[in-house]
Design goal:
heterodimer; A: alpha+beta; four-stranded mixed β-sheet; 15 helices; B: elongated
Amino acid sequence: MRPMFNRPDFRSLAGRIGLAVALAAGLPALAAAQSVTIVREVDSNNYDPHKSTARAASEVLFMMGDTLVALDPDMKTIAPGLAESWEVSEDGKTYTFHLRDDVKFCDGKPMTAEDVVYSFTRWQDPETKSPVAWRAGPLEEVVAVDDHTVEYRMSAPYSELLYQLSQSFATIIDKDNVEALGEDFGVTGFNGTGPFCWGEWTPRNKMVLTRHDDYVWGPSFYETTGPASVEEVVWQIVPEENTRTVAVLTGQSQITQYVPYIALEQLRAAPNVEVVQSDAAFWTYFFGFKIDKPTVNDAAVRQAINLAVNQEAMAEDLFFGEVQPAYSYVSQDALDWNHAIDGELLRYDPEKAAQILDEAGWTVGADGIREKDGVKLQPLAYVFAGSTWQKISEYVQAELRKVGIDLQLQPFDATIAWGKLATQEFDVFGMSFPYISSGDALNLYFRSENMPTPNRMNWDDRETDDLLEAGLTATDEAVRADSYGEVLKKVHEAAVWLPLYHEPMTIAQSSELKTVTPHNLYGCGLYKGLGIAYKE
Amino acid sequence: MTATASTEAAGVAPEDIAAPRRASWWRRLLRDRAALLSMAVLAVIVLGAVFAPLLAPYDPYANSRQVMVPPAWAARGSMAHLLGTDGQGRDILSRLLYGTQLTLLIGVVSVGLGGFVGSLLGLVSAFYSRIDPWVMRFVDMMLSFPAILLGLALVAVLGQGAFPVILALAISSVPDCARISRGIAVGIMKQEYIEAGRAVGLSDRALFGRYLVRNAISSIMIFISLRFGQVILIGAALSFLGLGARPPLAELGMMAAQGRDFLLFAPHIAVIPSVLIFIIVLAANVTGDALRDVLDPRLQA
């Protein structure tokens, strides 16, 4: 039976929203004709590309700055950005980028090879203490051959390079601007080459961006390569999700990716709102197991957990069918996914879960909880506090209870959760992450050198390390796909994770705007903002 | 034991002084209709909580595919779930019964613990006037910690759970109870029967236990009963902030918090537990007030 919320009481909702409309109508038109307001949940602490890992920072940086290469919304194709072309040396260690000669910063200064060299040097400089420096790969030096040619020299081949250079962390910045602002770079100003320029930032309230009028070097997959259609973009912070929903319904916000799933049904029904969703879902939620801790060190237990949880029902009931149930650790649409194991993925089968546990010697005790050799099947899970993880973890807990597994939940506030998740105290952890490709995800989570974090599973396997290295340094795409495919097969067979769902990019927008194409890069749905335009 | 005219006879059992009009207080309580009503409501809630395992129609932890079913009286409600279901498809009535159990337990334990430690501190410091300034300055210091902040700090150290919440509530109840009981005890210490007790050579222990505690206890109990409502409210607030019981346990504040996300679309999930918190706190306060009215000797004149 379909749940009841499918036919919601729209009238009573309309009544409540009607009040908000009346209030909003009383205000003067806040938005000038060519301005858009984007509501979002949180702000970043700064907008320095090298000093923040926050999605909130990347969202704005993609609009204010450019990268050498851009990523197509298909999440696979690399498109020219500031570099109009590039060559890779035979050994795969040197990339030569040919820069466009018409690029200007917001203050009118032309961008040259020196700026690229400065940006990457600062990114890698130990003084910068960048938490994302590793993304640049085994970089040795960046050299300006002439004003518009840059050589990126590495000590080993790095097949992820172009994808990493499309991230906001590789944004080209202006040396004079960085030196003039010092500690305040990205706080009181930012001089970039993007389609929009820094206007005014009031932290935890709003970020105002103004159009970069000279901009013509946008990526080719946009309908326009510049300048942007709208004159002003306002990133407005609205922490409460119901308030964001009402803001979109009443036209106070024209576009946002931050509306709750429960509201999408209503937003689709509203005549002034359009909801668009990407096919690709490159943000995955999962539980990981510490494979060397009692109870979850038993592969049978991990397999049974995978079989006992109904991801499809979870996607339907908790997220209203707006997310994709996950059986794989990365989206099956991701680059280098191993389609050979499609048929072997563990799917919902509670009877088989019970059978596997019985066979492995875990017998049901008097209280309904399984035990073996006096050890109760009660793995301890550390999860983030907050409504999303509360929903997910309570759901999984209830599902596991049905097969006799008593999952103990210990939620932590995000401020201390990261520290707790770096310890060996727990058996299971809840996590979600964005990625570009299979290799991106695997290198992050399954390398033995990444223990205890982000490899919180303690997956310590020589062969995996060798395969990942082979994939990372591969100069041939087939070799790379084979190496990563082998690792995918290994970790799925070992059931190291319980995949839960892949989150597609969902954007609610005013129907006064042209329909945007949702992007997935680092979870920033609007990417460069060139797709935001009012209908004629 | 109801004789009231024998106080001048030194050495007489001190019960006689403790509650001079014991026979009549409950009769006056029965005349107070608001008090009766609120006590009846409290009694029903307590019985419901105690017998939750017998009364609950469903397993409060079992999820189902029937999510967000509205209450029976609403347009699309069903009699299968009288108060509807929550976002995980769990029966709200069952969770409410179990949740009340935990909420009341947290209230009773923390008020009991805080009240005991607090009033002991207050009584001792009034009895031994030499340590009085030290104890009371310490209590002042404790008073400067808000309960919510204390709860946050304890949860950060101990992790989420009912125990840190009880600890935070108990600790935050200590200073108020200490101050009130010290005030009462200082008054009692000036009474002549204390002098008389000392004069006949009673030990400190007997003097403290039989004379001071027995005379102060009823006033302290009244204060503690008034404090109960407050503690329930702060406890619910802490749970609402996600500091309370660990899932899958149900707790009223936590249930309200879980419903917050659905407020626009399925308001019953948040409203029902909130209303119950309101009723419990109101009934506890009215009952406490009524008890004070009939028991406080200063209001009897």
